[in-house]
Every structure is written in structure tokens, then in C-alpha cells.
Design goal:
Layout: H1 2-16, H2 25-36, E1 40-41, H3 42-49, H4 53-65, E2 69-73, E3 81-85, H5 87-108, H6 113-145
Antiparallel strand pairs: 1-3, 2-3
Length: 149
């Protein structure tokens, strides 16, 4: 399992390294989080990428300077900053996704049709398990946020 995951990560990350501008894995992850959660705040981004708020802020500085991310104060809370992708940021993620899909497709051409079907079924089951874990974590987080009477 770990060898297969490592091979997938190597192919996945290798395809991303051909993007221009060249971004680190953490920068790509931050952009992906901003795409998945439009308007996420800095604290939320830091939590999702496993960084401290100051480190996430510096990361956003670089992404903003590259024209890939916008930071804006929210109208509800002037102290809170929301993060959104720019058009260039969306284009960058689309280009990286295309490169990744091409790399994975090239590899899968070497796998038999039967093996691809089994792989797809396994990956679907894995995705469902991840979603179930995320749902449980979301419920637990919501429960933790509710003050006890």
C-alpha cells in the first residue's frame, strides 16, 4: 500500500513541477484549499494545510505577489481576511490538473483493463471512507463548538 501511494505521489507531484510559475507542494495545496473553500479565512487555511497562522500569512503573501490569490477584508468583520483565487490562480490549478491527469493516464495505459477496473473500485471505496471520516470529524467539531449549558 505504501509503495503504491508513494508512486502515485511521485507521479502527481512530478507533473506539478512542470507548471510555470513553479510552486511548492504547500503553495499548490493552499491554492487548492482556496478553490475548495472560497472565502476561507487565514486561520481556516492554516488549519487545513497544517501551518501556523504566521506561516500561512507569509505563504499567502507570496501567492498574492504572484497574482494567484486575493485577500480581502470581509464586510461582516473588518479584521477578518477572506481568501479567493484570482483568474490566474484558477488557470494555474487547471493547468496543473491537466498535467497530473496526463501523467496518471500515461501510467494507466500500462495497466490492463481488468486491473484498471479493480483499481477504480478500490479508489472509490477509499474516497468514500475518507468522506465518512471527514463527516465524523465535522460533526465532532460542531459538537465541540457548542458550549455546554
Amino acid at each position: 500500500m505504501s509503495e503504491a501511494a508513494e508512486a502515485l505521489v511521485i507521479a502527481w507531484n512530478g507533473a506539478a513541477q512542470t507548471a510555470v510559475p513553479r510552486l511548492s507542494g504547500l503553495q499548490l495545496e493552499a491554492l487548492s484549499v482556496a478553490r475548495r473553500y472560497p472565502g476561507i479565512n487565514l486561520t481556516g487555511l492554516a488549519e487545513r494545510i497544517g501551518a501556523t497562522s504566521p506561516a500561512a500569512s507569509r505563504l499567502c503573501d507570496r501567492l498574492e505577489a504572484a497574482g494567484l490569490l486575493d485577500r480581502r477584508r470581509t464586510s461582516a468583520n473588518r479584521r477578518e481576511i477572506e481568501l479567493t483565487l484570482t483568474a490566474s490562480g484558477r488557470e494555474m490549478l487547471e493547468a496543473v490538473s491537466e498535467r497530473r491527469l496526463t501523467a496518471i493516464s500515461d501510467i494507466l495505459q500500462r495497466v490492463t483493463v481488468t486491473q484498471r477496473g479493480a483499481l477504480l473500485a478500490g479508489l472509490r471505496a477509499f474516497t468514500e471512507a475518507v468522506e465518512a471520516v471527514e463527516a465524523v470529524e465535522a460533526v465532532e467539531a460542531a459538537q465541540d463548538a457548542v458550549p455546554e449549558p
